[in-house]
Write a structure and sequence with these properties.
Elements: H1 13-27, H2 32-37, H3 41-57, H4 63-77, H5 80-92, H6 114-127, H7 135-169, H8 177-188
Pfam families: CMD (PF02627)
Domain Carboxymuconolactone decarboxylase-like: 48-124
Protein name: Carboxymuconolactone decarboxylase family protein
Length: 201
């Protein structure tokens, strides 16, 4: 259970209630970090704008590379909410989520391409305390992804560190989003599904 409660929908304000409804429609439930973040409304809206802008801007790297590095970052920090939500997003994007169970063996497992191994190793190096990124590593990443790709990968890992560490500090844990994703996929196949509600919503 989170260390502070989510803002109830009745107290979220007109725009906040609209966002809650849109999030339920898109994800099956209201993501708890957003519902908790609404306690500071200016930061909530700045975070919303930043997330939307980041989502629109990150299209240089293949999604499978970028999202794998983000997922790895979440596992290293220990943010179960990020792992849960990130798995759902990857599944909805049509990415192979079954291989995520083998992420600890990325360096040798044939499920991961050389480019993916470079990205995951970079996530490890950036997320370490203190970071262990080396010049040679950055040079290899630049050769593989180009400068714009390197910047995108760096930013994606840095942003996920921020999310994951904030969620960890606030005690925000997995919310069952990957289960919500399977329900949504079931809808597409014509099977009946029940809506998934966020805790406290």
């Amino acid at each position: 259970m989170a260390r502070i409660p989510a803002v109830p929908e009745a107290e979220a304000g007109v725009l906040g209630r609209l966002v809650y409804r849109l999030m339920r429609r898109r994800f099956g439930a209201v993501p708890e970090p957003f519902a908790i973040g609404l306690h500071h409304r200016r930061l909530f809206w700045s975070a919303m704008v930043a997330e939307l802008a980041f989502e629109r801007a990150t299209h240089v790297l293949p999604a499978r590379v970028r999202e794998l590095a983000v997922y790895r970052t979440a596992t290293v920090v220990g943010c179960s909410w990020c792992v849960d939500f990130g798995t759902m997003l990857q599944r909805l994007d049509g990415l192979d989520v079954e291989r995520l169970a083998h992420i600890d063996d990325y360096a040798t497992d044939p499920l991961y391409s050389p480019a993916e191994r470079l990205a995951v190793a970079y996530a490890d190096a950036m997320t370490a305390t203190p970071p262990t990124v080396a010049d040679a590593q950055v040079e290899e990443l630049e050769r593989e992804f180009g400068r714009a790709g390197l910047i995108e990968l760096t930013q994606a890992i840095a942003v996920e560190n921020q999310r994951a560490r904030a969620n960890h500090a606030l005690g925000i844990v997995d919310q069952g989003f990957d289960a919500a994703c399977r329900v949504r996929l079931g809808d597409r196949a014509g099977r009946a599904a029940q809506p998934v509600q966020a805790p406290g919503q």
